[in-house]
Amino acid sequence: VRRRGRMGIRGRFRVPLAVPVEACRSRPGRSEARRGLGIDEGIPVVAFVGRLDRRKALDILIKAFARVSGRASEAVLVLAGPDYGEMAMLKTLSRSLNIESRVIFLGLVDAQKRAEVLASADLVALTSLAENFGNAGAEAISAGVPVLISNGCGVAEGVEEAGVGRVIPVNEDIMAVALNEMLGDESSLR
C-alpha cells in the first residue's frame, strides 16, 4: 500500500493479517471439545466460524450439507458466529430440509469456544461469495483442520497447493459432491 504519512515518509508497507496461530494450535482435545458441544465422537463435524451474513453463502452450504450421504449423512454442521440478519432464515431452511437436528447454531463465540469448535471439526467450510482473505480458513489450517473453501476467498490461493483442503466455486451441486468426498474419506481428512 502506498501512503504518505504525516512525516512525509513515502513507501510501500505490507501489513500481514493477524491470525492467532498459537491460539489455534493450543486448543482442547477432540473428545473434550465434542463433549462441550454435545456431539458424539464418531460423528463427522463440519464447522463454519464467522458472521452469519448473506455474503457467506450459508444457505448454499446448508442446502449442499442436506445432500450428503453415506458416512456423511450423520454429519453435524456447526455454525459459530454473530447473526448479521441470516440466522432466522437459516434455521427455517434447515427445518424445511429436515436437517434441523444436525445443524447447531452457537451464535457469537469467544476465543475459547472458537478453539473448541475447531478442535471438534473434521472439516471447516468457508464458502463465501467473496472474502479479501478469509481468516477463518487460515485459523482452521493453523489448527490442523482441512478446509472446504470457495474460490472467492483470498486464502484459497494456496489451499490446494499446500494440500490442506479443496477450493470450489459457490455452487450447491459442486459443494455437495465435495462434502461427500471429503467426509467420506476419513483418512485423507487427517
How would you describe this structure to a colleague?
The chain has nine helices and eight strands. It is α/β, with parallel strands linked by helices. Strands 5-4-3-6-7-8 form a six-stranded parallel β-sheet, sandwiched between helices. The chain has a two-stranded antiparallel sheet with strand order 1-2. Helix 3 (58-65) links the parallel strand 3 (45-49) and strand 4. The longest helix is centred in the C-terminal third of the chain and has 13 residues, at 172-184. It is globular, with a radius of gyration of 17 Å. The model has no long low-confidence stretch (mean pLDDT 87).
Q: Which characteristics define this entry?
A:
190 residues, alpha/beta, six-stranded parallel sheet, two-stranded antiparallel ribbon, 9 helices, 37% helix, globular
